[in-house]
Each structure stands twice: as structure tokens, then as C-alpha cells.
Amino acid sequence: MECKLGEVDRARAIYTYCAQICDPRITGTFWQTWKEFEIRHGNEDTIRELLRIKRSVQATYNTQVNFMASQMLRAHASGA
């Protein structure tokens, strides 16, 4: 909708905000849609920023998964 109104920067800000809660392993459609948006409306720098944000979010989710796995192992080991 923002693109139809000519608000490309606002649409980009919405994508950036939503990216914080979209795990790339699960929400591949979101990331693909954002990439297509950047190809249509952005430039090399905006695509590079998209990839940087994606790597950052991926690292966050990987850290959370590893932390939860270690907590589960610790709880299982202390309960045995």
C-alpha cells in the first residue's frame, strides 16, 4: 500500500521493523518479498542493507536456539 502512495522509504522502514520478528528459516516468503521490493525500488546499497539485516536476524535466532538447547541439556543432566 505504501508503494502505491509513493512512500517507498516508509515501506522500507516497515520491512526493516518486521524483519526483527521474522526468522529467515521459517518466513522465507517475507524475505523473498522484501528482496523483490528492493530489486524494484532500491539500489545496491539497499539490497546490501537487506542482506546485513537478514544475517543479523539469523544470528539472533541461532543464538536463541543454541541457548535454549544448552538450557535443555543442562536441565536434563541435572535431573538424571
UniProtKB/TrEMBL annotation:
**Domain Pre-mRNA-splicing factor Syf1/CRNKL1-like C-terminal HAT-repeats intervals:** 1-76
Q: Name one Pfam family in it.
A: HAT_Syf1_CNRKL1_C
Return the Gene3D superfamilies for the record: Tetratricopeptide repeat domain (1.25.40.10)
Question: Per the UniProt entry, what are the Gene Ontology biological process annotations, in alphabetical order?
Answer: generation of catalytic spliceosome for first transesterification step
Alphabetically sorted, this entry's keywords are: Repeat
A GO CC annotation recorded here is:
Prp19 complex
Q: Which superkingdom, per the lineage?
A: Eukaryota
> Which protein are we looking at?
XPA binding protein 2
